[in-house]
Amino acid sequence: MTQVDAQVSARADAQAKAQTDAQTDAQAKAQTDAHTNAQTNAQINVPSNPLAPHTAGRLSHEFSMTLIRLCCLVIMTAALMAGCNAQQAFDAMAPQEEAAQARQVIAQLAARDFASVQAHLDPTLQTSATAAQLAEIANHIPAGTPKHVRLIGFNSLQKKTDVQYSFAYEYEYDDQWMVAQVMFYRKAGQLLIAGVHVNPMAQSERAVHAFSLAGKGPLHLLMLGLSVLVPLFILTTLVICYRTPVPKRKALWYLFIAVGLVQFTLNWTSGAINVQLLAFLVLGAGFMQGSAYTPLLLSVALPVGAVVFLLKRRSWLAAPASAAVQDVPAQG
């Protein structure tokens, strides 16, 4: 190779290297500029208002409170509608013709139309004193037009020769209430009055039988306390039974623990108590109320199974310890 060719080749290599270095520098600069622009854009997109997070949190809180208020309103409306629908459903279940006749009898007594009442009275009840007895009943009916009339109870009984009916209505007046009961029986297609009772009251039946601690004595408080403590005691014993290595028939122990024996039932309104020796109650407590116009019955049973299990558990846990002591060899 001549000297001229060597110089030309060296010059070409230098130019190629320069072009490569220029391209590399251009790419690096482009990447650097792109990164710088991305950071700038990210900085620009950062919220400039320092209160923005707090505003979003406040809006979320207000939305939550609005949702809670809406749910409460829906629940209250549903409860009111359920109460109205329950009364309407109860009214629809009653025999309509006989129920209307019962209300008419009370209206006739209030108007002192005794002749109309006597025309439908059972002939066996007709005496010379019937008019005076009807007048006495009418004297206990408050004056004026009732504000509300509610059916609070009814019953029908089919017998061989007739059908017996009983209706109880609550009448609300301006300053007092009245409960009226009318009894009929239908025989040979004829509806006859078998009895009428009216009872003026200072408050409604709903208020009389409402659950309240006002004016309650030690027996009410004792039964209320036991109705809470006995189920807790039974549930705790069930957990202990689950954790205890029972020798055999553990499922039967669960059943024995879960029920209380010998049931005590308290009429919350009157305070009367009833004892049933041959009775059992799941979890040892419960309550029952037929409707808002009937007494609440609070029941408590003795947790016999739970007590027996805890006594047996002590012997089960002591047995392995006794066996271990006997297995220790004597030293000497």
How would you sum up this structure, described in words?
Strand 5 and strand 6 form a beta hairpin. Strands 1-2-3-4 form a four-stranded antiparallel β-sheet. A four-stranded antiparallel β-sheet has the order 6-5-8-7. The protein has 332 residues and is of the alpha+beta class. The chain is 54% helix and 22% strand. It has helices at residues 3-45, 52-93, 96-110, 114-119, 130-139, 205-208, 218-243, 250-258, 304-327; strands at residues 148-158, 163-172, 177-187, 190-201, 259-267, 273-282, 285-288, 297-302. Residues 1-8, 38-57, 79-84 and 324-328 have low confidence and may be disordered.
C-alpha termini separation? 114 Å
> Portion of residues in helices?
40-55%
**Helix vs. strand class:** alpha+beta
Secondary-structure element order, N to C: HHHHHEEEEHHHEEEEH
Radius of gyration: 43 Å
Q: Describe the main β-sheet briefly.
A: 4 strands, antiparallel
Q: What is the overall pLDDT average?
A: 76
- The beta-strand count equals 8
Task: Specify the number of helices.
Answer: 9
Side by side, the strands of the main sheet go 1-2-3-4
User: What gross morphology would you assign?
Assistant: elongated
